[in-house]
């Protein structure tokens, strides 16, 4: 059972290489053995029969130890960044019925009303609790609940088991072979599943993680200096992060692997990186535990729309592309991307019966997740991602795919980045706004419209095109609409 629980794999790694580095920060390096000792102290400070624990902490060794401590006790954790709105944190913690929140003194007022344990280890040292406790972990127990955006206006909590995560650790190891001597950059926020890849897929394969300061995290040159200083070998992030690296004259020589996930990867975002490191495009909803497919860009090719394929299923997963009647489509035909295998999670907690219908139980007992994403098989068996099923809008009675318009903008010669969003006017009619970052200061919007008109009909061209110095990103690393101007019509 040890190989199918997160804490079991952690303990095995502590026994195997206790003196190897586990967590690297600018001012300290913590070995697996030292991290394990911190895990023990934190776990022993918990009340008896702990089932669900909130995590609201800064990114540092104590945060990583706190997560493993929760898992050691057989409980699940619910992560939230301290920067999240108070109302959002409260909703998450209430719905997940946390017994208490592991946090730091500076966030006490933000978590007013919740029982709090301050995980700076000073309390653990002062009151070690019942150190003679015996803990057990079960592969089918929930490991965490990760909240994603919901269509109802409230976030949805995806319930992921220990077994799901252990499946992904094996899949990651089977493709990327991390091990002692590798160092993964811990860059993602804790509430996104790239964090799961950074922490668990690295540490439980024997690699270390390196956690930059907030200042280094927010400045690309400083971040790359941190990477160089600590010899980071693996970096995983959104395409926007890789696009920033793509503009640099050079990247640290230690980097051997760059992984893009969470959004569409376009050829021009990584074209200067392909000869410097291995670059992978990945795909997978949180509901299927981090990634469901991988694509190696160096040996692959960019599609006609400028994007990379999402590849083939990871080890232990299966992907079927089905039509609206549930039949498999032929190569080249569009269908819904449906995922089976060890990563398919338990579904959403709380009252999300409608959304849980996406988890379909098949006659053979397996559960298939209907992603709501559209794609198609390429002749070589790889999969191409097209768009969400629900990105269609109606303009002048005609259907428009917002993602198609966005893809065409990316192919315009003067555009570096583009985001297209649909809005509704006072009459209930849809219109589009395009936010673009130009490649240079000489961009003329009239020429952009002219290029778009070569491939799009008039009603498909965004009514408004807004020039932006950069696309603002939210805490999860995706375009933040709340920080972009909304043009009322």
Describe the structure.
This protein has 489 residues and is an alpha/beta fold. Among the domains are: 2-237, 3-Layer(aba) Sandwich (Rossmann fold); 392-483, ANL, C-terminal domain (GMP Synthetase, Chain A, domain 3, 2-Layer Sandwich). It is built from 13 helices and 26 strands. A 5-stranded mixed β-sheet has the order 11-12-13-14-15, sandwiched between helices. Strands 16, 17, 19, 20 and 21 form a 5-stranded antiparallel β-sheet that branches. α7 (193-203) links the parallel β9 and β10. α1 (6-17) packs across α3 (61-72), α2 (32-43) crosses α3 and α6 crosses α7. The protein is globular and about 70 Å long. The model is unreliable at 122-130 (pLDDT under 50).
Query: Tell me about the biggest sheet?
Result: 5 strands, mixed
The overall average pLDDT, rounded, is: 91
Structural class per helix/strand content?
Answer: alpha/beta
> Remind me, CATH topology of the domain at 2-237?
Rossmann fold
